[in-house]
Amino acid sequence: MSHEDPIPVLQAEGLTKRYGRRVALSEVDLRVPAGRVVGLVGPNGAGKTTLLNLACGLLEPTSGSLRVLGSRPAASAAHLARVGFVAQNTPVYPSFSVADHLRLGARLNPCWDQDLAERRISRVGLNPGQKAGRLSGGQRAQLALTIAAAKRPELLIFDEPAAALDPLAREGFLVNLMEFVADLGASAVLSSHLLGDIEQICDYLIVLCEARVQIAGEVEELLAGHRRLVARREELARLPAGVETIRVEHEAVYSSAVVRTDLPWSSVPFRTDPVSLEELVLGYMSRANAPVAGVGAAALGGRR
């Protein structure tokens, strides 16, 4: 592998996971490049947690393959040390003190950075002697983030870690997350239904809906390749070849559509306007699952 073509942090081929008759992931193909902060978005039940648990080695695929940092997930203790994971609700041990968590982290992780852990604990105002069960939600999230980052991993994975936090605590958590990513030079995958969080910190987007990846790519490139246009309903039927309609909403006379193309936008004979990240995500969710069509931003937590 050349320097110009680094090993992807996640690579899935035909990845499928079933729970009995329920399909959580279906034939997922995905290649996430290194060095990105990835936003994984989609409605509840889309398969986001399943994908992240597969990436951490907590689940085995039903079929297909998944490689994390070039290897099978949790292939060895050394590989586990390369991945930091913060699960939903940022679980910690209630009877352990903050210092106990750091001591446990040091025993379990060969690359543990005690100086980093203590520095961050001090910075966010955590008392080393405080029992984790008596911490606020925001403090527990900061403790879980510190433990994951003090492993000095190459990949940080977060499964909606800030969803239950109040806006101030969530803002502090995201700021610290980005500082850790920068300090470690790590890649990160953040699952969230809060589009404002994704827009604030992520430069790569994966939309997962109905057990399948609907779209994935660099946020800037995705936004540049999609536009919103308004035209009479009959005119939308005459869009040029190579222009794909992602979502359309009809009014009495005019219709509004989110479209994508690889053509120059100057070749599209309609006025087009840039789309927001919210419009792009909802467009693909609507296309994947018709009942989602027409819902507002509240379906994904909206913008902050």
Automatic annotation (TrEMBL):
Key words of the record: ATP-binding, Nucleotide-binding, Transport
SUPFAM superfamilies linked = P-loop containing nucleoside triphosphate hydrolases
Sequence ranges assigned to domain ABC transporter in this UniProt record = 10-235
- MF (Gene Ontology): ATP binding; ATP hydrolysis activity
- Designated name of the protein: ABC transporter ATP-binding protein
Belongs to which family?
A: Belongs to the ABC transporter superfamily.
Residue runs in coiled coils: none
Q: What CDD domains is this protein classified in?
A: ABC_DR_subfamily_A
